[in-house]
């Protein structure tokens, strides 16, 4: 979390205000600037809209600091919004994000930052951006209803983690929750282009409830990346660990975890509970 915090604190600095009247230059987006590699253009303008002018010491490292937020999938246009500021397209005119795009991204992503202990940066105050009467980057219509009816992971207090539970405890959790799954979770030891927390292999359903097979693996990974404090306490770096996870989907579509059972080879009670579940009466 330290790199992301450093990025947010840097954004709050008044010295980063951008002057539209200053001279600028166009440079190629460097390969190491991975968060903006697939935005649809290859050249960016420096200084950028956050006032950064040095690629190696400012632009690239601070762009990478935003990757943990983008990996949560908090908004389908979050990358376009952020890259329009850190790596603005090099055209004859300045193209900023529209105020409406900022508001849309802020609405979805600010709660994720809050969950991770940070507020929406003042430098990204949506009032500073132009309205749609001007030339600016606007929200894409096809994204307005994206994933509307699918469950969405919620920021929450850390769920109960129980080691070596009794069989009754596991069966009661299956009964009192909307879904129960088994999944292998891995935490990478070193920074990479991939998310630090990963659902490895297939997610197996014990009790499917409202979850959809094609969406569940991505949904659980989003939960891990949004609830980083819980994830850090749950998963050690290194080898993947098998878990049984149970949870609920609220009426507003928000998904939350209620119980997590690390499933080790010695945990016979979990194995017996999963076998008995098919014929168990709650």
UniProtKB/TrEMBL annotation:
Task: Tell me yes or no: is DNA damage among this UniProt entry's keywords.
Answer: no
**A single MF term (Gene Ontology):** Wnt-protein binding
GO biological process, alphabetically ordered: canonical Wnt signaling pathway; cell differentiation; non-canonical Wnt signaling pathway
Q: Which Pfam families match?
A: Fz (PF01392)
Q: What is its main location?
A: secreted
What residue stretches are annotated with the FZ domain? 21-139
Please give the positions of the paired cysteines in each disulfide bond.
102-126
Matching entries from InterPro entries are given as: Frizzled/SFRP, Frizzled_dom, Frizzled_dom_sf, Netrin_domain, TIMP-like_OB-fold
Subcellular localization(s) per the UniProt record: Secreted
UniProt cross-references to CDD domains, sorted A to Z? NTR_Sfrp1_like (cd03580)
Membrane in keyword set: no
Q: Which residues form the signal peptide?
A: 1-17
Q: Which UniProt keywords apply?
A: Developmental protein, Differentiation, Disulfide bond, Secreted, Signal, Wnt signaling pathway
The NTR domain extends over 155-282
Give the UniProt entry's GO cellular component terms: extracellular space
Family per similarity comment: Belongs to the secreted frizzled-related protein (sFRP) family.
Query: Would you tell me the protein name for this molecule?
Result: Uncharacterized protein
Q: Which organism is it from?
A: Knipowitschia caucasica (Caucasian dwarf goby)
């Amino acid at each position: 979390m330290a790199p992301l915090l450093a990025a947010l604190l840097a954004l709050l600095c008044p010295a980063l205000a951008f002057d539209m009247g200053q001279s600028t230059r166009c440079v190629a987006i460097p390969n190491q600037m991975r968060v903006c590699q697939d935005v649809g253009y290859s050249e960016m303008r420096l200084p950028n809209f956050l006032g950064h002018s040095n690629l190696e010491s400012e632009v690239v490292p601070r762009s990478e600091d935003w990757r943990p937020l983008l990996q949560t999938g908090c908004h389908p246009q979050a990358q376009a919004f952020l890259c329009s500021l850190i790596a603005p397209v090099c055209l004859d005119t300045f193209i900023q994000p529209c105020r409406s795009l900022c508001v849309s991204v802020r609405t979805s992503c600010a709660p994720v930052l809050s969950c991770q202990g940070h507020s929406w940066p003042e430098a990204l105050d949506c009032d500073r951006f132009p309205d749609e009467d001007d030339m600016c980057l606007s929200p894409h219509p096809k994204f307005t209803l994206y994933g509307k009816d699918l469950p969405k992971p919620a920021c929450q207090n850390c769920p109960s983690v129980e080691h070596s539970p009794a069989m009754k405890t596991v069966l009661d959790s299956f009964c009192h929750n909307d879904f129960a799954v088994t999944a292998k979770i891995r935490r990478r030891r070193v920074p990479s282009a991939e998310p630090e927390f990963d659902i490895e292999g297939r997610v197996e359903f014990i009790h499917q409830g409202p979850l959809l097979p094609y969406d569940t693996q991505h949904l659980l990974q989003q939960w891990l990346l949004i609830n980083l404090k819980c994830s850090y306490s749950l998963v050690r770096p290194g080898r993947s660990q098998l878990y049984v996870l149970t949870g609920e989907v609220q009426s507003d579509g928000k998904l939350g975890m209620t119980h997590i059972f690390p499933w080790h080879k010695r945990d016979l009670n979990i194995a017996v509970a999963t076998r008995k579940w098919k014929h168990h009466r709650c």
